[in-house]
Design a protein that fits this description.
The longest helix has 15 residues. The protein has one domain: Gcn5-related N-acetyltransferase (GNAT) (Aminopeptidase), CATH 3.40.630.30. It starts with a strand and ends with a helix. A seven-stranded mixed beta sheet has the order 1-2-3-4-5-7-6. The protein has about 210 residues and is an alpha+beta fold. Strand 4, helix 4 and strand 5 form a beta-alpha-beta unit. It has seven helices and seven strands; from the N terminus they run E-H-H-H-E-E-E-H-E-H-E-E-H-H. The protein is globular. Helix 4 packs across helix 6. The structure holds coenzyme A. Coenzyme A binds next to helix 1, strand 4, helix 4 and helix 5.
């Protein structure tokens, strides 16, 4: 690994994020879903702009990449919504209690040009570490079939499965998965991927929380 850096997403990134997510949805789900299922999956995927307002969404940049070219984007949630974009049904902006509820891992997308280089793993570790900074001890997420291998490799385990979350009969599964937060493990992944020392990550996340 190595060769990656991160920053907090900003409102000005929304066009780039939307384009990256659409490519990932359309290209990277092809081994798992039919074209009609991929179209249906757009109802329950995409950007929830609340994550940008909350400063809990990350942009990943590969060393040497041209300006405004991102290797991936993804984040975490301190609110109840488990998955979906701003347009998706069933959202809830209610704040979670870190003492009892699991933090959410949200909207994880790698550019098709940067797959299998640890971008998803870094995004997960950033979300895990940031959630730990706010007192959470567990994480949960709603996974696509394309996302499940990443989450299983990172230690998530499935707890339930919804076969038709869009309610359109297209049978696009969403798998609910959970994992205890491993702060030291997340810090090690971030350090290996970016070279950033842990204290710097803590500082940058604190700045994001204050803005
Ligand atoms: C899921 C996704 C973000 C994974 O991104 P990625 O950056 O390629 O993943 P990583 O390189 O960090 O993978 C880390 C590990 O996860 C596992 N993994 C990831 N993608 C995998 C795949 N397609 N098949 C098998 N294992 C996979 C592997 O163990 C991998 O380690 P390795 O490459 O050393 O074998 C990406 O495929 C994607 O954007 N998919 C479409 C959108 C989507 O479904 N997002 C998930 C929403 S819940």
């Amino acid at each position: 690994m190595g060769g990656l850096s991160w920053r907090i997403a900003e409102e000005a990134d929304i066009a780039a994020i939307t384009a990256l997510q659409l490519r990932a949805i359309e290209e990277l789900q092809k081994p798992f879903l039919t074209p009609a299922q991929i179209e249906s999956s757009k109802k329950t995927m995409g950007l929830d702009t609340q994550l940008i307002s909350d400063r809990t969404y990350f942009m990943i940049i590969a060393d040497g990449a041209p300006a405004n070219t991102f290797a991936g984007c993804g984040g975490w949630g301190r609110r109840a919504t488990l998955f979906g974009g701003s347009h998706s049904a069933g959202r809830s902006d209610a704040f979670l209690d870190p003492k009892t509820a699991p933090a959410r891992i949200r909207a994880m997308y790698t550019s098709p040009d940067f797959t299998r280089r640890g971008v998803g793993k870094l995004l997960l570790a950033l979300g895990e570490f940031a959630a730990s900074e706010e007192g959470f001890s567990k994480m949960t997420l709603g996974s696509t079939l394309a996302g499940a291998p990443l989450y299983e490799a990172a230690g998530f385990r499935a707890t339930s499965r919804d076969e038709d979350p869009a309610g359109d009969g297209m049978n696009v599964p969403v798998i609910t998965m959970e994992k205890p937060i491993d702060r030291a493990g997340a810090a090690a992944v971030i350090a290996a991927a970016t070279g950033e020392v842990n204290a710097e990550t803590v500082k940058r996340l604190a700045v994001a929380r204050a803005t």
